[in-house]
Amino acid sequence: MGIVVQKYGGSSVADATSVKRVAQRVVATKKAGHDVVVVVSAMGDTTDDLIDLANQVSPLPPARELDMLLTAGERISMAVLAMAIGNLGQEARSFTGSQAGVITDSEHGRAKIIDVTPGRIETALAEGAIAIVAGFQGVSQTTKDITTLGRGGSDTTAVALAAALGADVCEIYTDVDGIFTADPRIVPTARQIPRISYEEMLEMAANGAKILHLRCVEYARRNDMPIHVRSSFSDKIGTWVVRSEDVILEGQPMEQAIISGVAHDRSESKITVVGVPDQVGFAAAILQALADAQINIDMVVQNVSAAATSLTDISFTLPRADGQTAMTALARLKDEVGYEKLLYDDSVGKVSIIGAGMRSEPGITAKFFRALADADINIAMISTSEIRISVVVAESQVDAAVNAAHTAFDLGTDEVEAVVYGGTGR
Amino acid sequence: MGIVVQKYGGSSVADATSVKRVAQRVVATKKAGHDVVVVVSAMGDTTDDLIDLANQVSPLPPARELDMLLTAGERISMAVLAMAIGNLGQEARSFTGSQAGVITDSEHGRAKIIDVTPGRIETALAEGAIAIVAGFQGVSQTTKDITTLGRGGSDTTAVALAAALGADVCEIYTDVDGIFTADPRIVPTARQIPRISYEEMLEMAANGAKILHLRCVEYARRNDMPIHVRSSFSDKIGTWVVRSEDVILEGQPMEQAIISGVAHDRSESKITVVGVPDQVGFAAAILQALADAQINIDMVVQNVSAAATSLTDISFTLPRADGQTAMTALARLKDEVGYEKLLYDDSVGKVSIIGAGMRSEPGITAKFFRALADADINIAMISTSEIRISVVVAESQVDAAVNAAHTAFDLGTDEVEAVVYGGTGR
């Protein structure tokens, strides 16, 4: 049999009891005949505790040292997991990101993986051992300093290692059964998705589905590495994230569902710059000011100008965490651009329908908007991609909008899934 | 100015406040014009907490993984100290044992330093940065695995780095002002020793003085690296540990004191094998059985046999922690050796007088024993080296014996030192 890479998040290894449960699952996989590589996050709240400690000695800790500090978290969890596996009679060897050959650039706190040279992992597997690898961390190619990969880092480590090792699958363990057609806390009839394409999963992740991080899915797509998202609390088959041509399962209807799922995101806010002169260069100046402030904006809408005034409004969404920074950057532009005023709205939400099938199916937009209209939901902004339609609505109407879309596209089951939807740690 | 290596133990970096205080001392040394390398232990009880965690998942954690786990402790303290120094406006870079070039053998949990290749430290110093190095850890030359050096490891790291870097001095910071002529908790008039030779310090450390670990002093002697033991709570000059020819300070009487200090040790117990046939090979069989059980014995005394019976008693001292193992090993020998019985006594203590001056001074032993006799203290065992005389006495008489020796050799001051004698972490 081949190589299986398994990734366990912080909540799966939160304490000794959880670590022992993970150890049993790992050993069971090994006994089933696979070579097993395990990627772990730091235990429970370790990372937050370490950040607290850093803030106690320095208001703005140097990024290099913060990385050195935070990587202690995975060092602890991986060694403890290796011990727990050893106690079950299987040899396990733990490896830091550097030892596992996770080579990155030098951007501390958000390093990108440049190369993976897992020679020591291959040796460990060849010698019959289970390899435990610290997620979230690597070593800089140029400075040889310890780096961290930022949010979603451990998932990315797992996929990158799986690709470099030529693994059969990268299993991402979490506290839910897989990817759902919508958040089951909002839509009780939401259905687990058996298979989804990388492209659809990317849109889901980019638009609020929190189970997998964008970077990890991108890496998997580029390397054609199947991801199996499943629960660390059960043996159920979860959701496979695969190439679009592999999505259709034998025995299923030959036509793929038009819409795969409904995602939502409450982490954004909306800024409107009111009364911008409708002239070349003013919109660009506004977007440049935001870019200079390192703010990633999501959707942008420029209204048609009122003919009488030649003034227009520009609205955009951005992460709520960046709201203050953005307002400050824009306020500095007031004299230059001569806009009228700024409006800030953090009571918005984004609802997206995602499905590869909409490429070839006309009328999806109309059907989505009619469902929202029938539910008395007002659309503030719209953006689309080839396989996604997103709308911004009032935050108070997000749940209703998700349910309306879910029902309109007939995504639900008759049963109510008894799961809690949540994060995966980092 | 030259390079100064400073080592701070776990109690000196126990929390954010302590770390900030250490940072100020480090920066002050840098501002005085020195290149500064700092070696740190894990914060406070971190190491014990990690050991507890390991024991929760495995009764006998694999040594490789225990080392991986424990080294997380220094990773945390060094990164936090680097941040605190950065916050004072000086650049500090932290380095793991591996990054600092501490190359060891592969004996996990008690690795020996084979080589030190501190290229990255030298680069950091050349670039004007302060280098922070994780104590207690290194990397195996052959397996490239992370290793720990065992007890006293951080002190040894500091001395080894100081030697490899050609430092002017290795400063060991602790919670007392230096090395004293006796434990001031027992002898209120004990005096701080300004200078002591490596050889005397070795005897002090080997016979119960806990401030410096044997290995670190041995390493310093082999490499002629002066150690300055001093308090992290004051700016007082502490005790310099130097070559014997450098002990005599200018302006001091030309003759060195005959006795430098009195050490004591309550960590040993005594086993007596009663009624051993006084024949060739039986004593050897007993000692071999103990060696096979990995027990280091300290003093051994074989009584003259009673002529009538041709039976003898063999007594030896050993660490109390090994008492049970030793008794079990000896019990297995009963039929082979045919001894009468085993006596176990863990209410003993060892008192030693140490001084290079006793080499050329007759009558020291007599004076020591007379002082003990005058204090009604019975001597159970005796051992000597060229510069040390040790006696085993009842544990209840250790304090009286230390005071008797201290007074007899006129070691005290008129003042009472207001210090608390304690350990230095690891």
From TrEMBL, chains A, B:
Residues that, per the record, bind ATP: K7, Y8, G9, G10, T174, D175, R185
Keyword Amino-acid biosynthesis: yes
A GO cellular component entry from the record: cytosol
Cited Pfam families: AA_kinase, ACT_9
Highest taxon, organism lineage: Bacteria
Molecular function per GO: aspartate kinase activity; ATP binding
Domain ACT, first and last residues per copy: 271-356
BP terms from Gene Ontology: diaminopimelate biosynthetic process; homoserine biosynthetic process; lysine biosynthetic process via diaminopimelate; threonine biosynthetic process
InterPro entries (alphabetical): AceGlu_kinase-like_sf, ACT-like_dom_sf, ACT_Aspartokinase, ACT_dom, AKii-LysC-BS, Asp/Glu/Uridylate_kinase, Asp_kin_monofn, Asp_kinase
Enzyme class per UniProt: transferase
Binding annotation for substrate: T47, E74
Keywords attached to this entry: Amino-acid biosynthesis, ATP-binding, Diaminopimelate biosynthesis, Kinase, Lysine biosynthesis, Nucleotide-binding, Transferase
Pathway: Amino-acid biosynthesis; L-threonine biosynthesis; L-threonine from L-aspartate: step 1/5; Amino-acid biosynthesis; L-methionine biosynthesis via de novo pathway; L-homoserine from L-aspartate: step 1/3; Amino-acid biosynthesis; L-lysine biosynthesis via DAP pathway; (S)-tetrahydrodipicolinate from L-aspartate: step 1/4
Keyword Amino-acid biosynthesis in annotation: yes
Catalytic activity, EC: 2.7.2.4
Catalytic activity: L-aspartate + ATP = 4-phospho-L-aspartate + ADP
TM regions (residue ranges): none
NCBIfam families noted in UniProt: asp_kin_monofn, asp_kinases, PRK06635.1-1, PRK06635.1-2, PRK06635.1-4
UniProt similarity note: Belongs to the aspartokinase family.
PANTHER family in UniProt: ASPARTATE KINASE, ASPARTOKINASE
Role according to the record: Catalyzes the phosphorylation of the beta-carboxyl group of aspartic acid with ATP to yield 4-phospho-L-aspartate, which is involved in the branched biosynthetic pathway leading to the biosynthesis of amino acids lysine, threonine, isoleucine and methionine.
Protein name in UniProt: Aspartokinase
Source organism per UniProt: Aeromicrobium fastidiosum
